[in-house]
Amino acid sequence: YPSGNLAIIITGERDQHSLIVQEDELRTTKIRALFQSDGRSTCYYRNGDEWINMSIQGGQCLDQAGNRVRRWMWPNLSPEPHVPLSPIFISLNRHVGVRILAQDKIFVSFLAMGRQAKFNMGTRVQVSAGSQLSPAAQLGEDELLLLAFRVRILQLFDRMRGCLNFPSGEQWNKMQPPMYLITQAVKILELCMAADISDELRSSITAIVNA
């Protein structure tokens, strides 16, 4: 961002990659959106509530009260008659926007100081019997909560170290969180997206790691 805060992170592991959009705040690990190359993506409101959720089957859009206002299925990927997608555009903040036109046309745009970067995080994913549940999705609710609290505790320890090293607060307030904390927060959100848990629990875990 023009402020110097980290805006977008792209991570890769083997043949999978993810794009993470962070909020424009000092000392934050607050995630505004997570896009994965396997077809799963989630966008969040500023307060951490889920805004848009997409999977290899389709997606849904929620209002800030948690009510579903739009739902769609990707064509040719479901045995059910699919609900076509009307183009969606949202602004995560004044610099980052998301356009959803089709399963293979999901664009994340970053605009600042007259320059633009655009990423296409859309993909064509074929649904197979083996893709419905991955080993990561076997984690239960208690395990996911414990992982989320562990990440939160590590975040607090990191802030405490910053306070001790820079008591005045002028320096540590400008320091970005270490990459391993950002990565662990993203992993927790990925596990929540894969797991069969309630929307309420998913929102609670998101609020914990984004606090």
Describe this structure in words.
The chain is of the alpha+beta class. It has three helices and eleven strands; from the N terminus they run E-E-E-E-E-E-E-E-E-E-E-H-H-H. Strands 1-2-3-4-5-6-7 form a seven-stranded antiparallel sheet, covered by helices on one side. A four-stranded antiparallel sheet has the order 8-9-10-11, with no helix packed on it. A hairpin with a 5-residue loop joins strand 6 (58-62) and strand 7. Helix 1 runs parallel beside helix 3 and helix 2 (179-194) packs antiparallel against helix 3. The radius of gyration is 18 Å and the shape is globular. Residues 129-137 have low confidence and may be disordered.
Helicity, as a percent range? 10-25%
Largest sheet: 7 strands, antiparallel
The helix/strand class is: alpha+beta
Instruction: Give me the CATH fold name of the largest domain.
Output: Outer Surface Protein A, domain 3
The SSE string, one letter per element, is EEEEEEEEEEEHHH
Class of the largest domain, according to the CATH hierarchy?
A: Alpha Beta
Strand content: 25-35%
Pfam family, one: FAM194
Protein name: ERIP6 protein
InterPro entries: FAM194_C (IPR029281)
Organism: Sinosuthora webbiana
